[in-house]
Specification:
Number of helices of chain B: 10
Shape of chain B: elongated
Strand order of the largest sheet of chain B: 3-4-5
Helix content of chain A: 40-55%
CATH architecture of chain A: Alpha-Beta Barrel
Distance between the termini of chain B: 54 Å
Strand content of chain A: 15-25%
Radius of gyration of chain B: 24 Å
Order of helices and strands of chain B: HEHHHHHEEHEEHHHE
Oligomer: heterodimer
Largest sheet of chain A: 8 strands, parallel, barrel
Number of helices of chain A: 10
Number of domains of chain B: 2
Number of strands of chain A: 13
CATH topology of chain A: TIM Barrel
Strand order of the largest sheet of chain A: 1-2-3-4-7-9-10-13
Chain lengths: 269, 255
């Protein structure tokens, strides 16, 4: 059965406890929302894991931080994933701030040899610590750097070829970056090897008039569905998650988006 | 990588400045180079302010949008987040409010912020198991034994009606002037059913509770009963009934 689902969000806890939807079989929990909690966020995972397969997705690994990931973070994450054994553990290819000053944002790095070598070592360290492969997600970035010597997809292709890391391929982010930085998103998607895609993210963005902002506040845009079609046609069924983080609607609305993804996967099976 | 990240972070915190990275930025979309770091600056402030909004709903209600956001902005500028978990941000907001002008007009604000922060803190905490009732009998005879109370039991003793003020956001039409200005003695706690609740106590009950946390049981009772007036003996048993019913006695400790 294809793994298609949605991101588990606090605002849906009551609905998950009272009438969990049967149309999906896959949930993605935000690691930071659960791993330090021993209250309801923990107990709801214990309950839902009986009927749903889980992946864990983080925002604070900060694998590209010049100091490397925080040890207290890695320790807590490892304890967390050892308990729940999710099918995928992912975070972002980014850094989130300086020591003792977290920007709580996904900050980009230049796509060049220095970043590549740095990240290659960090990926090995993190995977050794967690004793499992991790998947890293492509960002929506609002700035690129003149010090970049590769395109974003060339960088990913090289990183995926030379490390054991998998990719959490966010199709919405590919579209947002393509619009913001002026490239063909299909070239990007076609560059990612099928066997290195651990999971796909789909979400909505906001058009500010000057640039596209990755807000996860709307349904998936038609242009992003088109790209998802393009991807699935080439790679076949991949675990897929709908993300919705702002202006979150009722659970059924988010589930309906997941069903659209399910239908697209079935179309190519 | 270190130099790049320090330069980037410096621009993120103060997009008006220029540094060695400024000329190397390629902005997204139709953004100008001098605009692009504002996207990250604004996002930083929005994220941290949204956590303050979520944690301090009653402080927000008291201050109103303009004043709350102004105080929040200054707090964010002077308090970078040391946490990897954004949900923990605002841990010093209560202390910060003590020195702010708004606390001259609303002197209960720091206490109110303290309750609100601990409410979310309790939300994520595991409830310790309550002690078996039969084990409690030992404390009546052993003068070295005391009660171990749940860490999810936080006493408040205020000269302001904190509970009523805290409850204001649940009553759209009610405002501060309609609250009867009485002292509040109460506890914030998370009970054995994982519900976060408050419970009003008499001053003497609160005093006894504090003694029970720090003294052997028999000594605490000896000192504590001095706070009760004649005819208030039932208040002692009421306190213990409350602690037992809610599962807030979690063990015994030796002194």
């Amino acid at each position: 059965m294809n793994l298609v689902g949605i991101g588990l969000r606090t605002s849906h806890y009551n609905e998950w406890e009272e009438s969990p939807p049967q149309e999906i079989n896959y949930l993605e929990a935000l690691s930071e929302n659960h791993m330090t909690s021993k209250g309801r966020p923990w107990s709801i995972l214990e309950k839902l894991r009986e009927n749903y397969q889980f992946s864990f997705h983080g925002v604070s690994l900060s694998i590209a931080s010049h100091q490397g990931p925080r040890e207290d973070y890695l320790k807590t994450l490892k304890e967390f994933i050892d308990v729940f054994e999710p099918s995928v553990v992912s975070d972002h290819l980014c850094w989130t701030g300086l020591p003792h000053s977290n920007a709580h944002n996904l900050l980009p790095v230049p796509y060049n040899e220095e970043s590549f070598l740095f990240l290659k070592d960090r990926i090995i360290e993190v995977q050794d610590y967690l004793k499992r492969p991790i998947a890293l997600e492509n960002l929506s970035a609002y700035v690129d750097f003149k010090t970049s010597t590769m395109t974003e997809w060339e960088f990913w292709k090289k990183l995926l070829a030379e490390t054991d890391a998998m990719m959490m391929l966010d199709v919405n982010n590919v579209f947002v970056n393509a619009q913001n930085h002026g490239f063909d998103p299909k070239i990007y998607l076609d560059a990612i090897p099928q066997h290195k895609i651990a999971q796909v993210h789909l979400a909505g963005f906001t058009d500010t008039g000057k640039f596209l902002l990755d807000t996860h506040s709307k349904p998936v845009y038609p242009e992003v569905w088109t790209l998802y079609h393009h991807l699935i046609k080439r790679v076949g069924a991949v675990p897929t998650i709908i993300e919705w983080d702002e202006d979150i609607p009722e659970l059924s609305v988010v589930v309906a988006e997941a069903k659209k993804a399910q239908a697209i996967i079935e179309e190519y099976q | 990588m270190k130099k790049f990240q320090e330069s980037f972070f410096s621009l993120l915190m103060n997009p008006n400045q220029k540094n060695e990275l400024s000329d190397l930025l390629i902005p997204a979309g139709k953004l100008r180079a001098d605009e692009v770091m504002w996207v990250y600056y604004n996002d930083y402030h929005i994220r941290l302010q949204s956590v303050l909004n979520e944690h301090f709903v009653s402080v927000w209600k008291i201050l109103g949008d303009d004043l709350f956001f102004e105080v929040g902005k200054k707090y964010i500028q002077t308090h970078p987040s040391p946490f990897y978990d954004l949900g923990l941000y605002g841990e010093k907001f209560s202390v910060y409010l003590r020195d702010q002008e708004v606390s001259e007009e609303f002197p209960f604000l720091p206490e109110l912020a303290d309750i609100e922060y601990h409410f979310q803190d309790f939300f994520h905490a595991a409830v310790p198991e309550a002690i078996a009732p039969e084990l409690l009998t030992q404390i009546q005879t052993n003068s070295d034994l005391g009660l171990k109370l749940s860490p999810l039991l936080r006493p408040y003793q205020s000269s302001h009606p904190l509970l009523e003020i805290w409850d204001l956001p649940n009553h759209d039409s009610k405002n501060l002037n309609e609250i009867e200005w009485l002292d509040n003695h109460f506890v914030l706690y998370k009970n054995k059913s994982e519900k976060i609740k408050t419970h009003l106590l008499r001053p003497a009950q609160l005093a006894l509770l504090e003694l029970l946390k720090t003294h052997p049981f028999l000594k605490a009772m000896e000192l504590g009963t001095e706070h009760f007036s004649a005819g208030e003996e039932n208040l002692v048993s009421e306190l213990f009934q409350f602690l037992n019913t809610e599962g807030l006695i979690i063990g015994l400790k030796s002194y």
